[in-house]
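Please, structure for the following, as tokens.
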Amino acid sequence: MTINLKNNNLNKDYKILIYNFKNMNNVSKKYLTIKEVANILGVTTLTLRNWDKKKKLKAYRNPINNYRVYKPEEIQLFLRKIESRKGPGNKIFLG
């Protein structure tokens, strides 16, 4: 999947993603819910479920209710990977 950042809406979304990444340092929770991660990354919960199935972003399971949860440090690492994959022409390669 390639995202072209020349489009103003995508560029705005990318800036939001970077803003969320920078504010991740304020997170003191041990785990984040799927909804929280979806908001941080600017994707839907369904996208996160698909990424989990495809092993792009590992989700852990809550032992009580089996809900997907994520470690904040792994979300930070994922965002760093996205930033490092920014290629020529302001494109991000996710897959």
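Residues 1-8 have pLDDT under 50 and may be disordered. The domain at 2-90 is CATH 1.10.1660.10 (Multidrug-efflux Transporter Regulator; Chain: A; Domain 2).
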